[in-house]
Every structure is written in structure tokens, then in C-alpha cells.
Amino acid sequence: MAALTFELPDGTQRRVEVSRLLNAGYAGRSQADVAAHVAELAELGVPAPSTVPALYPVAPYLGQQTAEVPVQHARTSGEAEWALVVDETGDLLLTAACDHTDRALEAHGVAWSKNAGPDVLARTAWRLADVADRLDTLTLRAWVTPVGGGAEVLLQDGTAGELLTPGYWTEVLRERGELRPGTVLISGTIPMRAGVDPFAARWRVELADPATGNVIALAYDVLPMPEPIG
To answer: Which of 27, 156, 199, 206 can bridge 80 by disulfide, Cβ–Cβ 3.0-4.6 Å?
Structure first.
């Protein structure tokens, strides 16, 4: 299992031994946004889902707090998301996340592709109860740095209000018997800007609270692995 530690705004820390990791997909509240995301993925050769929203179990060790993601080839990319975390006390935390996915493998199976890369989580979090009254106003953004260098480019820019709520997924987890310490659920993502290459050398994601100015951020480099022998 992966061991994660989150720092809260008051300076205290919460530890989580990830026992179940779930990735939501096609989880926009707007059917137009869901259709747009399906179209984005179709351009990458990914077939449309049989039902929406979708939920994909992921190996727990893939929940990581890391600054580097090694990849086997050039067609991998992340997605700006929030993560719902049930900590060791049973309290619900909210943090930023980036689901790094193998897009080549995704054309053969979304669940397979989700298990071919990590879900990168930030090292800070908020108690869900502390932001529950303004969840829809939280902003979610992702920037990418092109392969070969250059300035980072804004790829995703939206709000948590575009996605199904943590409350929705809390009920799903409760019905599944998985609202237990060690569960981490990644939210699904918002649309990407057209014309920006997501196959990048670096990803940066921010979940921000305009009411307080507080920001939860993560960033990581995408590192090509050596060519295999044999």
C-alpha cells in the first residue's frame, strides 16, 4: 500500500495508508462537457464509455506524492482533478490530484490505462467540511511545459462546480461499503483547451479557494525511461 501524508492549514498532519484507489471518469455535471471530453479522448483513439459517470479501480500503490513520473513512451498525459481522501480517523479531506494516464493503452481499455501510471496527489489538503459551503467556487487549473522546453501553457481552467460533487461520490462509496479509512477517489476532469499539446514534459495542477486565497498545488516532471533491451 502507498503511505501518504497531508498537511492541513492549521499545520497538523494526517496520514493515509491507501487501501483502495478509485478514478472517476466522465464525471462532469454538464452533459455538454462530458460529450466534449468523450470527443477529446476519441481523437486519441479511446472508445466512448458504455455508461457515465464511470468508476475505475486502480492499484493502491499508484496513489503517490511524487515530483517525477517515469513513462515508457511519449503518449502519456495527466488531468487536473480533485481527490477525496478518507484519512486514518475517518475524516474526509480534499486535495489536488493529477491522473497520469497511458493514452496509447487507453485505446485498448480505460481501466488498463489508469493502472499504467500514478495518480499524483498534493502534499497539502483541506478538511472537506471546511470548504463544503463553497465547493462549486473552487478553481481547478493545469499547466503543461512542452517537450523540448519553453514557457508553460495553461491547458485546463475551470471550477469544481463543473464536476460531480464530493457529496455525490461519498454516497457512492457508502453504498459500495468503501467509505472507510484508506479510500482515495479521484474526481474526473474538466475540459482541455483546444490546440494545447497535453503530451508534455511537466505538469502543474492547482486547486484554489478564491474566498481565502489558499492554494493546493502539485507539480511533476515526466521522465522518459530508457529503451528496453530485448
So the answer is: 156
Report CA 77 to chain centroid distance, whole Å: 11
> What is the C-alpha separation between 96 and 101, in angstroms, rounded?
16
Count of positions (residues) in the chain:
230
- Domain for residue 229, yes or no? no
The structural domain count of the chain equals: 1
The residue segments making up the domain with residue 192 are 2-224
Chain segment 57-67, per-residue pLDDT in tens: 999 999 999 99
> Whose grid coordinates read 487549473?
141
Q: Is residue 155 part of a domain?
A: yes
What's the CATH code of the domain at 32? Answer: 3.90.850.10
Q: How far apart are CA 74 and CA 166, in angstroms?
A: 32
Q: Is residue 102 one of the residues assigned to a domain?
A: yes
Residue reference for cell 491507501 = 18
**How many Cβ atoms from other residues are within 10 Å of residue 57's Cβ?**
13
Within a domain: 65: yes
Q: In 3D, which of 217, 230, 223, 226 has the Cα closest to residue 97? A: 217
Cell numbers 517537450 correspond to: 147
Q: Are 58 and 114 in contact (CB under 8 A)?
A: yes
Specify whether the CB–CB gap between 143 and 154 falls below 8 A: yes
Residue owning grid cell 460533487: 165
pLDDT in tens, 177-209: 999 999 999 999 999 999 999 999 999 999 999
